[in-house]
Amino acid sequence: MLFRVAASENAKPHTVLLNWNPPAAKPDSTVAAYNVYRTDPDGTYTQIAAGVPGTSYIDGDVKRGKTYHYFVRAVDTAGNVGPLSNPASAVIP
């Protein structure tokens, strides 16, 4: 279930708008929600949102002058979590 996610500075200062396309449909699997992750400064990633019902998310917990990297994982109706999406980055001016 690889899919692409994109990040951009949102219209509001100090927020990041994430948008993604749903993964390709698979037989016997329906996407129910998405989990959103952000990379920490030490390179590990932390889940910042769970059960996001749509294909966008706004991260309002960002700081000026920092770069953030994001990943998304699809969760199907059985609770199975898919692989990480491609990374998306945002620089907060």
Give an overview of the whole structure:
The protein is mainly β. 0% of the residues lie in helices and 48% in strands. It contains no helices and seven strands. It has strands at 5-9, 16-20, 31-39, 45-52, 56-59, 67-76, 88-91. The strands form two sheets. It has a four-stranded antiparallel sheet with strand order 4-3-6-7, with no helix packed on it. The protein is elongated. The N and C termini lie far apart (33 Å).
Report the β-strand fraction as a percent range: over 45%
Overall 3D form = elongated
SSE series: EEEEEEE
Distance between the termini: 33 Å
Describe the structure concisely:
The protein has 93 residues and is mostly beta strands.
SSE topology:
Blueprint: E1 5-9, E2 16-20, E3 31-39, E4 45-52, E5 56-59, E6 67-76, E7 88-91
Antiparallel strand pairs: 1-2, 2-5, 3-4, 3-6, 6-7
Identify the notable features of this structure and list them briefly.
mainly beta; four-stranded antiparallel beta sheet; 48% strand
